[in-house]
Amino acid sequence: MSTETTKEQRGFESEVRQLLDLVINSLYSNREIFLRELVSNASDAADKLRFAALSDDALYEGDGDLAVDIDFSEELGTITVRDNGIGMSREEVIANLGTIAKSGTREFFSHLSGDAQKDSQLIGQFGVGFYAAFIVADKVTVTTRKAGLTQDEGVRWESDGKGEYTVETVRRKKRGTEIVLTLKEDAKEFANGWRLREICKRYSDHVSIPIRMPAEGGDKDEDKGREVVNQAQAMWTRPKAELSDDDYREFYKHVSHDFSDPLTWVHTKVEGKLEYTSLLYIPSQAPFDLWDRDSSHGVKLYVQRVFIMDGAEELLPRYLRFVRGVIDTNDLPLNVSREILQRNKALDSIRGASVKKVLGLIESLAAGEDYARFWKAFGRVLKEGVIEDFANRERIAKLLRFASTREPEAGAVVSLDDYVARMQDGQEAIYYITGDSLQTVRNSPHLEVFRARDIEVLLLDEPVDEWLVTHLTEYGEKPLKSVVDAELEAPAAADDAEQPSADSGVLERIKAALAERVADVRASRRLTDSPACLVSGGEQMSANLERLLRAAGQDVPETKRILELNLGHPLVRLLEDVADEDRFGNWAALLYEQSILAEGGKLDDPAGFVRRMNDMVQQLAAQGA
Ligand code: ADP
Predict the structure, then answer these.
(1) Cα(41) to centroid of ligand 1, in Å?
(2) CATH topology of domain 241-366
(3) pTM (predicted TM-score)
(4) Residue having the nearest C-alpha atom to atom 17 of ligand 1
(5) From the CA of 46, how far away is ligand 1's center (Å)?
(6) 213-256, pLDDT tens digit by residue?
């Protein structure tokens, strides 16, 4: 690269190009949000400057009145959004406005379909921020200087949003960022004072720093011919009675970078020994990076109205990482560091109380119709709470929902309370089965006896479920039991005596034939229709967990399981008459292999299985079977 002062032309990262196309095509019907995004960035920049200035007051350069200014020119068809926040260095401009520094971006784009309608819904989960400028502008010029750098270290960035941009180092007296939008022909209507004011009022009223525009009526706080067009007060500090649902919704969009409305929220002011305000939201859809362990948006921490940090685990546990909002306290020092946060009593109490608030919020959702939506979006994350948050385990368990053998409709779920309430007389346990898909578990042979006796079984098909059940071993004093557990007492029934008595010779012969592959072979009391299934000893890892760990690249040793046979099944009976040891061995292998297939497992030698099966079928056909 040439020296820094020269103007250079660069190409956008390919993801940015994709994003720009998408933004321009899919957000057309909602164009005015461009202003909200730019004002939101300006307000974040003010937050960052304030935070940085805590340790270096000189960064203010004598100008501590942080504000956003919006100007426009009808003649030129331009809008200017200017802030005196933190600004950007040349490297930052290139990184922030030419690439997308969000992990999971590539993955996100691979989910896009190219169908503008569908994709516009997805884009909401992603957040477009600065790039929203190109919805209305065909040229965007950013001039900025980072606080603390010299006046010769200003930067100008310019692009038509088509694939390339230029950057050059310029002289800039003022710290902060100025963005000039040259409006597209069909977006000139936005270069209008009335229109801009209205948009600010609608989307940015809650922004805590003043947004100033050229004065119009002159009857407001005038400042050299300019007037403030928003409330300019940290929204969470305002009394609840003053705030409308729309205020809450707009503020949510600002803190969360989400385009859709939140599902619900709770605004709490605590006074007394500990003083803090929290405004916590539950989104209505999962953000694209919910599964990224490092995703940072989350709850913002403010100390005495000064923004300190984003998404700190010290504020809310990881299993509530979908919660958005702010916590503002007077009980932490302004110069608080991560280290201080990690062992701070005040913060511990705030965190504990906030967890309870959020759980309360989810509980109230659970009572209403929105819960299905919540559960679909965040159920998997909430399950982690059972594993991580011992103190609230019961409370979280109450919020869990599961597919079940009694809920045949797609998407229908049951709570543990409802399960317990409809247990059979004399049923001692809550039964469940784990597997890698709902279809696999729903059709599993292990469920046959439960179905025959009309006993409900919970169907657990998500990876996290394997960990969930190792932590949630009982609920409401009822143990949770896996239906593949070898020691499981199959639910008692009067007709047990009718089980055909075994020719124990067959069991012994199969055991000998499969000695390498199974720990034992025994008569089953859980099968009614299938000939065989595999069960695991109580201490053993379930086959599903083994598979999950292997898929995650772990080296898990093969554990031998117990093969259970349905001695009444015609295929098993057939074996009694097979004298030829080779043929017998093939039969035994088939029974073992089909048991693996039925539980969603993979065979070591699938072609061998097919060959054996075809041989057997041909032999039977030859016998006229
Ligand atoms: P997001 O705000 O979601 O991170 P954006 O695309 O809106 O994404 O912005 C990317 C980055 O560019 C921001 O995170 C911020 O670091 C920087 N940025 C954008 N606007 C400004 C601004 N007005 N002042 C300083 N930095 C800014």
Answers:
(1) 5
(2) Ribosomal Protein S5; domain 2 (3.30.230)
(3) 0.82
(4) 96
(5) 11
(6) 998 764 545 556 899 999 889 999 999 999 999 999 999 998 88
